[in-house]
Amino acid sequence: MSKKSAAARKPARVNLPKQALTRIAEVVGRGGSPDRVAREVQAIATAWRADAELDQGEVNEHLAECCESLAEGVEAARTQMEDGDSSDKAAAAQGARSLAALEAAYRAMSEASRG
To answer: Between 6 and 74, where is the model more confident?
Structure first.
């Protein structure tokens, strides 16, 4: 058996933080409320902590990575809100909802990473 065929059969490791952030972005993008987004984050963190194949140190690293990315997302959303066209009330309202949801995701991820 060649190394290539053995490597081809080994399942690729899923990038859990990327997968989680994609899921959170989907919920935010569909207009999920801050509470809904926070529950999604809590579910992700709970699933990771319960996964017997994940070392808890690895889980903590994943949570910290997500928390950092969410903090960057919150800052980007705030900047976008500040730079946006305030005369477009619908866009401003949507931006405010998205920002609130991102802030809730960040808070929930921060709480999950602490404990």
So the answer is: 74
